Task: structure prediction
Amino acid sequence: MKARSDRLLVWSRGPDGRRLAGFTFGALILALITGPEGLEGNPTYGVIHSWLRPRVIAFIAAGVIAWFLSTFWVRNRDRWRPAVRETWQGAIEPFSDRRVRWGSYVGLIAAAALLPQVISGTWQEITVDQIGTYVLLALGLNVVVGFAGLLDLGYIAFYLIGAYSAAYWTGVLPVHPPIVLNPFWVLPLAVLAAMAAGVILGTPTLRLRGDYLAIVTLGFGEIIQIVANTLGSVTGGAQGVIGIKRFSINVFGIHYKFPVGAQANVPYYYLLLVFVIVALVVFHLLENSRVGRAWTAIREDEVAAEACGINPLKYKIMAFAIGASTSGFAGVLFASKIGFIDPTEFSVQMSILVLILVVFGGMGSLPGALIGAAFLQWGQNFLRTSNYSWYNEQDLYVYFGALVIVMMIFRPQGIIPSRRRSREIGLAEQGIGTADALAPPGSPP
Amino acid sequence: MSEASTVAPNEDLIVSVSEVTLRFGGVTSLSDVSLDQRRGEILSVIGPNGAGKTSLFNCLTGVYEPQEGSIQFCGDPHREPVEVIGRRPNRVSRLGIARTFQTSRLFNALTTFENVKIGVESRQHTGPIGAVLRLPRTRREERESDQRTLELLEFVGLRAQANTLSSALAFGDQRRLEIARALGTEPSLLLLDEPAAGANQSEKAELERVIRRVNSELGISVLLIEHDMRLVMSIAERVVVLNFGEVIATGTPATVQRDKRVIEAYLGTTEDEEAG
Result:
């Protein structure tokens, strides 16, 4: 009996036991913060109703299952990794053939084009407002965070600039534009405005290293939102603005006005699809060009990059401006689709959300940003619309937080990592270089 | 002593450092350092640890900005010399000064080929618009840089490892890769910061061969920091000795070796001990 309890003690202090304790503790914390709130007259209400109710069993069970899976993986990963890699190599082998690759692209685009025909109206709306828009946002942020390694926490500010540009140029803000434009013409103007904001913000701050940029962009995001909220005579203030014009096409005898409300989902879906494809192609070309290599060089070792004749400031501003203009572009689409915007939609939390999408998918990886954003946004909306008793929408970020923590422990490179990024992480684990783009590069030699 | 370290004024100099003083707070890292390098020369800077050799390199490449003095660089003999101090490292690289680092600073997650290509591309002009539209100039530059990269890898003997990760290369190969990357920026002056540190005998021999070829075949002047005296003596035409941030001797390897102050600096004897 004694020996047995000793063994248990030893086990509980070992890696498996500690991991089990960690997962159980995490599950209990999750159960507590996603449970009911405490009351003023009864402060223990929240604790009692989250821990002393059957609900907690589900959380602990989930924790134990997660522990079991992770232990299973940790024990076997060295044995499985070659097999997994081999299977993966075998699976992607046919794609090295140009025809197969292009065929699969065409197939994917065709599937995406058919998608709105097979889903319900609710999901059409979710696909446009929640998935498509965020995929575009994630692709843009991926250039800043993933390619250039700059932590931008105020990304949504540029989205706001795009949305309010749409409102301004279609003449619905309290201040009136010189001419009222079709949103199609607003797109380049909004892109320029967002890009200019990015350059103005970036030029002084991108000289700084690492954390400072995150702090400055965080502040910038807040300032922009507060300005939109309080400068009522220009922006319409907290009530927001309504009646932003829809896109319309008036060329070569074609007169088509994008419809309003539920009818708008499908046309906007196709519009977004086109822009997402364009963004993918553009960013892919950039990544594999002189510009993309310069970004990688700066991210890996800024001192060496400078010694190789690369102007870090120039390329950082470029990445920042490209990200900002993508965000502004998405802002115009969103504002014109919904027709109504108010400042609360552009909170810092949304910047964080887009960052989570990019980190989850894999920083610096285009398929990662695409699929990561689509999957998380789909999951979030699936949970919201399914009305599970255990899921409460206001706890969303608690689950996102838990997800990011687990990702950082087990798969820091994201679900579909970029080749370069995962190499960096692999090398950092062996103590070569810094994988963390956010860590300051080594001081000059 | 600084007068002795400069050569006759009418000679063709690639770089002329005059009276450079670099301080960090109260610490003087370089004090009144002057040295001249002739075009096409292999000049070596030696000195004990902490003598200011790497600081001098950092001043020459724009990483540090010395408080006093002037560094005149003349990459093209038909042009006027230009001041290096006050330019950012990327501008200095554009002028034609390339360097390697004391501890390799390769782009570890990139392949050997990509490392050199980044250096080669510093002389190109493709911007984001060209890259996205795949303009004819972009395609031509891409072909040219691929070609040039392969030539440079051939030159340093790394062609076979073109697709190896730079961090997976053997130590000596990494040093030569750094040289190839620096050569990619089309320098007229190459600064090598202890290229042979930690290398074994055969790696050193290979490095020596590469440095000689850089100098003789490509006509690039080489400024070399090195602790390996055998290598310095065999390769350098002249040697500058730094100690505590000051130039204490300049001359041919043989003269410098016999210099009393140099021997003192290396043996660490002080004036007091000598007097006593």
